Amino acid sequence: MSDNPLRVLVVDDQQLVREGLTALLELTDGIEVVGSAGDGARALDMIAGDPPDVVLMDLRMPVLDGVTATARIRDRFPGVAVVVLTTYADDNSIAGALAAGARGYLTKDAGRAEIGMALRAAAGGHSLFDPAVAARLAQAMTRPTASPRRDSLPDSLTQREAEVLGQIAQGHTNSEIAATLFVAEATVKTHINNAFAKIGARNRTEAASYAIEHGLTINER
Fold first, then answer.
1. pTM of the entire predicted model
2. 148 within a domain of the structure (yes/no)
3. What is the DSSP string of 135-196?
4. Residues 79, 158 within the same domain
5. N or C: which end of the chain has fewer CB within 10 A?
6. d(Cα 130, Cα 85) in Å, to the nearest integer?
7. What pLDDT is attached to residue 100?
8. Range of the structural domain that residue 160 is part of
9. Quick one: pLDDT at residue 220?
């Protein structure tokens, strides 16, 4: 690894938090804070002018939230890694951030050493997660899918589209489906639109009837 310090951009909508993180990271060997931003839009402007190695990103912010900003950073600046540092460790927040391309996910009770390790890991192309987040990821890996796997599905549905239809038939909202399947809510909406077009459903009631008729649901325990 280079002897040059790791260049980090801090993004958080609370000024006190930004200043605290900046002061904390400046005490960490091998890390240089090159700037801070109060929202995702400002962060993108700063990255375009002087790309850092890693962005330390909050999630809930005005103007442009952290998930959307992360996705745009990964699309426009693939050489810049993103580590999420947030108060939230719920499934939807984790799924959204990871689907957007974040390489690390920490909660705000993380210490300086843990934050430093996550930033260095992300810069090296690796991932480091808060223990609570890692536990949720492990749980997600063992969750049953929303519909039984079959060799063939009706109307050219993909397996994921069938799973989403099965979840709709069980009365789940888009956010609940996202949490169950561990994907971003925007991804769920895309699957729903594609599935509705394939099966000719005009609403969730028709989609639920279709899922039941074609055996796309499973019994929840």
1. 0.66
2. no
3. HHHHHHHTSPPSS---S--GGG--HHHHHHHHHHHTT--HHHHHHHHTS-HHHHHHHHHHHH
4. no
5. C
6. 10
7. 82
8. 154-213
9. 44
Question: Is pLDDT at 104 greater than 80 in this prediction?
Answer: yes
Gyration radius of the chain's alpha carbons: 20
- Give the chain's length: 221
Distances 174 to 30, 140, 145, 188, 192 between C-alpha atoms, Å: 42, 17, 15, 6, 9
Q: What pLDDT score does 106 carry?
A: 93
Tokens standing for residue 143: 């969750």
Residues 162 and 129 in one domain: no
pLDDT of 60 above 60: yes
Main-chain dihedrals φ then ψ at residue 195, nearest 5 degrees: -65, -45
Structure tokens at 87: 């108060």
131/203 same-domain check: no
Number of domains forming the structure of the chain: 2
Confidence of residue 140 (pLDDT cuts 50, 70, 90): low
pLDDT at 142: 53
**Residue with tokens 């649901």, as numbered in its chain:** 217
CA distance 46 to 35: 8
3 residue type, one letter: D
User: 160 and 115 in one domain?
Assistant: no
Going by C-alpha positions, the residue among 28, 132, 125, 35 that lies closest to residue 82 is 125
DSSP string, 95-147: HHHHHHT-SEEEETT--HHHHHHHHHHHHTT--EE-HHHHHHHHHHHTSPPSS
